Please model this.
Amino acid sequence: MASPVTIRLSGLPVGKGRPRFAKASGHAFTPARTRSYESALRLAGQDVMGEAAPMEGPLAVAVIAVFPVPASWPKKRRAAALAGEVWPTIMPDADNLLKVLDAFNEVVWRDDKQIAKAAIEKRYGAKPELVIRIEELTGGSASPLLVLPAPTLLLEGEAA
Model:
């Protein structure tokens, strides 16, 4: 089994936007903000994968969306948020954060239908970013990837 792949995209995490419809034609289209974010995510995936072929077989994916602590919060609440004692319950929805991973099709994996296990977590942190870890699954392996690492392990001290 290959080692896990970690992809990071700095900036405020963006979820997949709802499809919009053109009034004249009735055709559906993806909002510009979603297209732009998926393009940046795809580039980040290409940077990490280099010349490697997309992953094959079943995959486990862990997504950590890190949001900035609101500047209007008092120091005590800000400190609690950075310590992981306060969870973000803000947009985007967790499922929409997973949907932007379509950007990795034919780059990191052949198709997102290969994802057999997934975990997602929203946290507060010093710098907003989206962190995605992908691991190939074998046999009946219970992936430790789905137990999301502590912020200091994954967000600060890990070499990608």
